[in-house]
Amino acid sequence: MNYKLLVLDVDGTLLNEAKKITPRTKTALLKIQHLGIRIVLASGRPMYGLRALAKELAMDKNGGFILSCNGGQILQLPDNQWLFDKRIDPEMLPYLERKAQKKGFPIFTYHRDTILTTHPENGRIRREAELNGMRVKGVPCFAEAIDFAPCKCMLVSEDEAALTLLEAHWKRQLAGSLDVFRSESYFLEIVPQYIDKANTLSWLMEKLSIDAKDVIAIGDGVCDVTMIQLAGLGVAMGNAQVSVQACADYVTESNEADGVATVVEKHILSAIHPSAVPLEQLNVQGRHALMGNLGIQYTYASENRVEATMPVDHRTRQPFGILHGGATLALAETVAGLGSFILCTPDEMMAGMQISGNHLSSAHEGDTVRAVATIIHKGRSSHLWNVDVYTSTDKLISSVRVLNSIMKKWQLPSSNA
Q1: Up-side HSE of residue 70: CA atoms within 13 Å toward CB?
Q2: 233 — alpha (psi -120 to 50), left (phi > 0) or beta?
Q3: pTM score
Q4: Where are the beta strands (DSSP E) in 228-278?
Q5: N or C: which end of the chain has fewer CB within 10 A?
Q6: Positions marked catalytic
């Protein structure tokens, strides 16, 4: 299937337990964006807490979307255009605060890079700020301090039974104006009516003219169930609750075992990988060749695209500790050479003909650079490849053109000649 949109929950899905994107997952997500598939980060986090993750995934370079506050907002990248922004009527805040005070529950909301709360020392609130890279500001009167319409408000308590009772009460009391739900056992969220990930995702899909069958959605929590059911391929993480897994079309590995990468590789990348190139075998075979001596490792190959990595170390650096331009050209020739080898028919052979490189920036010792070769001309007698070389932070350092000559293999004389 030709998927166009990949929708990812963040905590428990995209991120592992250390709150990091693993290299395998990051590589897979960078690849599909180069193929034109757009990524949506769909999270309960505020917008401020998602921007850094979007940048890490190069979504700002590939036209991604951030769906924050469980669907309250949609930001389009890279132009930072607000496509959707629904908020709570500020007139509701005094009522919410009074109820929180009566129950003894801390209340908080987000504003830009700050969490505003009546209980700035609460451990759950401070952890929420830490996760999102935000600061905490205490306010004596919540309703008076909030001089804007918030995307959502949250109550905190370790008393799960008390939160459950308040949730049930508010579902009846606030019906028609606000929605409430438990995002964690200790969090009760209040959002504008009809706001959830699926409703807002459906709005985005309609705006982009994308059918559900062209969407993959991956999540692990109860808040992800509706978007999992909406997508053409709804995926639950291996670490999701059994009730969430029961709603999915497919259950992948856990967030500790690169569950997102597994889905991308199985359901997207495999479909555009027509040549079964034995990369591991090629890497082993190249150990004693130039690529092995430079530490080059193939990481991806298809008919029109080849990728490889190379460390910046004592083998590839200049005396001053930066990547040697000659090593960069060798890396470019390596990936373009494999690319032409894949394209050659059984009776053809390839030979390098010309290489021209532009070194735009530098990579320093200790880094690992990544080469991405894409075919820009596939003729009968030649292949022209563009090879871009990036640092581990996706900074472009070199752009190289490699021209390979394609020839028919020499015919060996027959034994009867």
Answers
A1: 27
A2: beta
A3: 0.68
A4: 233-236, 250-251
A5: C
A6: 333
Q: In angstroms, what CA-CA distances link 334 with 174, 244, 289, 291? A: 63, 45, 11, 7
How far, in Å, CA of 170 to CA of 249, rounded? 33
pLDDT tens digit string along 399-417? 999 999 998 644 334 434 3
Alpha-carbon distance values, 366 to 230, 283, 295, 323 (Å):
44, 21, 13, 10
Burial code (b: 16+ CB inside 10 Å, e: under 16) for 231-264 equals bbbbbbbebbeeebbebbebbbebbeebbbbbbb
Type of residue numbered 216: I
DSSP tag of 271: G
What is the phi/psi pair of residue 410, to 5°? -65, 140
Give the orientation angle of helix 259-267 with respect to helix 23-34, to 10 degrees: 30
Q: What is the pLDDT of residues 90-112, one digit of tens each?
A: 999 999 999 999 999 999 999 99
Tokens of 322: 């930066």
- Residues near 346 by beta carbon (within 8 Å), at least 6 away in sequence: none
Q: Encode pLDDT of 12-54 as tens digits.
A: 999 999 999 998 899 889 878 866 789 999 999 999 999 999 9
Q: Which residues contact 23 (CB under 8 A, 6 or more apart)?
A: none
